[in-house]
Amino acid sequence: MKPNLSILFTPTPLWLDLFFAATTLITLVMLYMAVRRVSVAGATRVLVISIVWLTLLAILASNHFFQQLDTFPPHFILALGPPFVLIIVLLSTTQGRHWIEPLPLSVLTTLHTVRVPVELTLYALYIHQQVPELMTFEGGNYDILSGLSAPVVAYFAFRKQQLSPRWLLVWNILALGLVINIVVRAVLSAPLPFQQLAFDQPNVGILKFPYIWLPGFIVPVVLFSHGVAIIRLLRNQTATVV
């Protein structure tokens, strides 16, 4: 079955573009703040690398690079590959583990609040036929619960210190499961060679600017934040504000 590509090049509303761009900016600022707690120089490097990467994605998406669907490998993979490789390196190597060791779990937990505007963006994209319903909270994507609960979890875990590291670990694992759920849904509904879902209204929105920043930046930052928290909590480190 071939996907419906009638809206592949249909522009998205400007107000929604601006709203999502602001969401991306908030994600970047919170990531910067987390690293800055540890190292100003490190935070500056993260900021510069992130801006360069976001700019590159913006240029490519604005020139319809990711909407070219007849290439192999699909161009969309080029948006996912570099950040995911970087995450694996940071979480699995000795040098990477040393770098993430002092990152404040308080900020990384609060960062997940960006998932609320992300889910609102996805719903608006669904209304404008840019993504399928299965990518929204009406269609089985409950990732908004992670965003809504993040400030509550951060408050009781770090400010009140009434939520134990064990329960913080449980929350991170559950929230990680929710983001993996939407990632799988998004990939399998995109008009790519391995598409399995939503052929009538495929996921074309994330191939466009600025929404390419979702798989290319926001999702990796969310996964990285969960990865850092889970690794440290599994090692029974105390989840305190640093």
Folded structure, characterized:
The protein is mainly α and 242 residues long. It has one domain (14-234). It has helices at 14-36, 40-62, 76-92, 94-100, 105-110, 115-127, 144-159, 165-188, 213-234. It is globular and about 50 Å long. The chain starts with 13 loop residues before the first helix and ends in an 8-residue tail after the last helix. The chain crosses the membrane at residues 12-34, 46-66, 72-91, 170-192, 212-234. Keywords: Membrane, Transmembrane, Transmembrane helix.
Number of helices: 9
Percent of residues in helical segments?
55-70%
What order do the helices and strands follow? HHHHHHHHH
**Stretches where pLDDT falls below 50 for ≥5 residues?**
238-242
Strand pairing plus helix content: what structural class? mainly alpha
Approximate strand percentage: under 5%
Radius of gyration: 18 Å
Number of strands: 0
Number of domains: 1
**Biggest beta sheet attributes:** none
- Overall, the morphology is globular
Distance between the termini: 52 Å
Average of per-residue pLDDT values: 94
Layout: helices, strands, pairs:
Elements: H1 14-36, H2 40-62, H3 76-92, H4 94-100, H5 105-110, H6 115-127, H7 144-159, H8 165-188, H9 213-234
Helix pairs in contact: 1-2, 1-6, 1-9, 3-4, 3-9, 6-7, 7-8, 8-9
